[in-house]
Amino acid sequence: MTMASKTMSAPAVPGSYWAQASPYGDVLPVPVRGAGSKIYDAEGREYIDYLLGSGPMILGHKHPAVLAALREQLERGTQFFYMTAEAMELAEEVVRAVPCAEALRFSVSGTEATHYALRFARAYTGREKVLKFEGGFHGAHDYVSMSHAPKKVSPYPRPIPDSGGIPDRIQDLVLIAPYNDLATTAQLIDEYGDDIAAVIVEPLQRYITPKPDFWHGLREITRRNGIVLIYDEIVTGFRLAYGGAQEYYGVIPDLAVLGKALGGGIALSGIAGPHDIIDLSDISNSGKENYVEQLGTFKGSPLAIVAGLATLKVLQQPGVYERLHAAGARLRSGLSEILSDYGAPYRVYGEGPTFKVVFIDHDVVTHRDGFDADAKLLSRFERALVQGGLNIRPGMRHYVSLAHTNEDIDRTLEIAANAARETLPR
Rg for the chain (alpha carbons), in Å? Predict the structure, then answer.
């Protein structure tokens, strides 16, 4: 049950800024509408949007193709429970696009998709333990709410719960390894491999890019030990490439979870993989010990399905990914050029249409490498970015959409230059 306070209710009409939860207690805009690459608050102030609904709006806000598909579906109905013809079409397109996919099961959220992916892995292998990487985020269910943002260091592979309410028993079923550290990961898998059902990993962990040998090594170790390798492609799916990170990095997992861009701005996710795993949830398997129950009233919502289909059709157009990657590269190089004029050590991270500034004097390769980043300086800098007219989520990576123009990027770099002058030491 959600509890609300009578003494802390929001104003009826929020202004340009209103206190919202953020890592630094900052004051962020409350949007009332969006269009293209912009959002607008109740006072009409414009922000260039690099939050993009936390990633789903890869085409930008109010894309005509998505709106047209939604209007048409609204006239036909919004909920049937049974899969529609369009749902089957979208599933077939995902299977065609994503290298590991022979079959797809729809779900609603990223949390739900990773929950079911791990259930599939446990049912398929008959094992119980899960290995995830420190700093990796895979939603909010018990198995993955471990060591995403640990406030203290725990010896590997002992996890630290990220939330209250998680049974102690879950800690005994989750192993934590350092991302990008193949040697430590291999050692843990050699020790616990007979008990590990799955390794779940973000191909691009938050803003940290993988080492060249990490993916190939991880794929080989998991295959050798009969472990299901799960790529959490909620973010990278249809973003780094049309086939996701597995196409982009050239290494194919056993299962992939998809979301964000998949639903074109409406809640939709999915679990993709080979028939011998995904078909464990087929009704023909019902009654067997390894039957995977995967149900949900709103999985495959008709509105999400048609929005997703419209989005994928746009993403298939020639030159789309060249544009997305070029915009991300230009932002990263422009930010690096601006920050190089100041005395604060920095790194600009990201891959494809993502970017992130970190104030630190060394490379961040694993989660713990970022512990000594200057969070206070970043907070001041990012607050100035928001005040200058950018919509970002403080402390997190930022997304680029197809709607962002060269003019938007010019203006973004101008705002960043002003923010640097106001907040950074010479």
Answer: 22
Domain ranges of the chain: 6-62+318-423, 77-315
Q: Which long-range contacts (CB under 8 A, 24 or more apart) does 21-24 make?
A: 22/393, 22/394, 22/395, 23/379, 23/394, 23/395, 24/375, 24/379, 24/383, 24/394, 24/395
Whole-angstrom Cα distance, residue 113 to residue 268? 9
pLDDT digits (tens, 9 = 90+) for 256-294: 999 999 999 999 999 999 999 999 998 888 888 988 888
Write out the E strands in 308-366. 347-349, 354-358
Contacts of 369 (CB under 8 A, 6+ apart): 362, 363
CA atoms within 13 A on the CB side of 6: 0
The CATH fold assigned to 77-315 is Aspartate Aminotransferase; domain 2 (3.40.640)
For the stretch 5-44, pLDDT in tens is 433 333 444 444 444 545 444 467 788 999 999 999 888 8
Query: What is the 3-state secondary structure of 72-113?
Result: HHHHHCCCCCCCCHHHHHHHHHHHHHCCCCCEEEEECCHHHH
Burial of 236 (0-12, 13-18, 19+ CB in 10 A): buried
Q: How long is the chain?
A: 426
| Other beta carbons less than 10 A from residue 84's beta carbon | 17
Nearby residues of 410 by Cβ (< 8 Å), 6 or more positions away: none
Q: What is the pLDDT of residue 22?
A: 52
5-14, 84-93, 324-333: the lowest-pLDDT one: 5-14
Instruction: Determine the CATH number of domain 6-62+318-423.
Output: 3.90.1150.10
**Per-residue pLDDT, 11:** 41
Distance (Å, rounded) from C-alpha 291 to C-alpha 293? 6
CA distances from 69 to 60, 73, 83, 298, 425 (A): 15, 6, 17, 18, 50
Neighbours of 76 (CB within 10 A): 11
Predicted confidence at residue 80, as pLDDT, reads 79
Instruction: Decide if 112 contacts 269 (C-beta within 8 A).
Output: yes
Q: How many CB atoms lie within 10 A of CB 329?
A: 16
By CB neighbour count within 10 A (0-12 exposed, 13-18 middle, 19+ buried), where does 325 fall? middle
Phi and psi dihedrals of 130, rounded to 5?
Answer: -130, 135
Distance CA 120, CA 294 (A): 9
Between 183 and 76, whose confidence is greater? 183
- Asked whether residue 84 carries a pLDDT value surpassing 70, the answer given is yes
pLDDT at 27: 62
